[in-house]
Each structure stands twice: as structure tokens, then as C-alpha cells.
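Sequence only, no structure available. Ideas?
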Amino acid sequence: MTAFLRRSWYRFSRLGKGRRKKQKWRNPTGRHNKLRKKRKGYSAVVSIGYSGNRKMRRKIEEKIPKIIYNVKDLEKVGKNGIAILGKIGRKKKIEIAKKAKEMKVKINGLNAEKLIKAITHRGTGKKK
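Reply:
I predicted one. C-alpha cells follow.
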């Protein structure tokens, strides 16, 4: 897969120098823009030829992802599913991780065993 990064992203922090989230594609504009002209030696420009296999699109490890916000949502993920955590707090994340370990459901971007081990090792983590 080709990483499509906007022009001059490496020059400014606001465009993503050292900040991966800021590295977003913007279509090149401008009269003398070398990217727009697709000159040799410059990074790739988004075009229709780069699209992936239609059967594999919007899938992770050949499984359909489902966004999880609570334990009830986790139960809806079937055999051919993979969970993605939504915007949730630490307490719910721990509950979901424990349930996912029981159900043997994989959560993308979260190592459930490691999280549970860290919590049991240091307790609840609340300040007194």
C-alpha cells in the first residue's frame, strides 16, 4: 500500500512533521506544483489505479470491523467480526477486554491480556 502524504509534510509540524495524525492527503494545486504534474522523483498522487481489491476493502484481517462502546456491543460481534474500540474510558475498556478474552474476540489495536495484566499488577490505579 502506498502512503499518500501531502506536499511539504516533512517541512512543517502543522502538516505532520513528527505528528502522524496530521499527515493527511490534500490534493495538490498550484500552477508550478510538481506533485500535480506527477513529476518523476516526487511522491505518489491519489488516483483510481491505487484502489485495493474490492473484496478486501473496509476489512481488517479479512474480517468486518464493528465499533464497540460497551459490553453489549461486543456480544453482537460474530465469528467473522473484529472489534474496534470507540471513544470510551479506562473502566469500560477493562470490562470489554475481560469479556473479549472470554469470548475469544480480537480487538484491533488493543492487547487485552497485557491490559488486564497491567491492571491486576498495580491495582485499580485510583489516587487516595
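DSSP finds three helices and three strands in the chain.
Hope that gets you unstuck.
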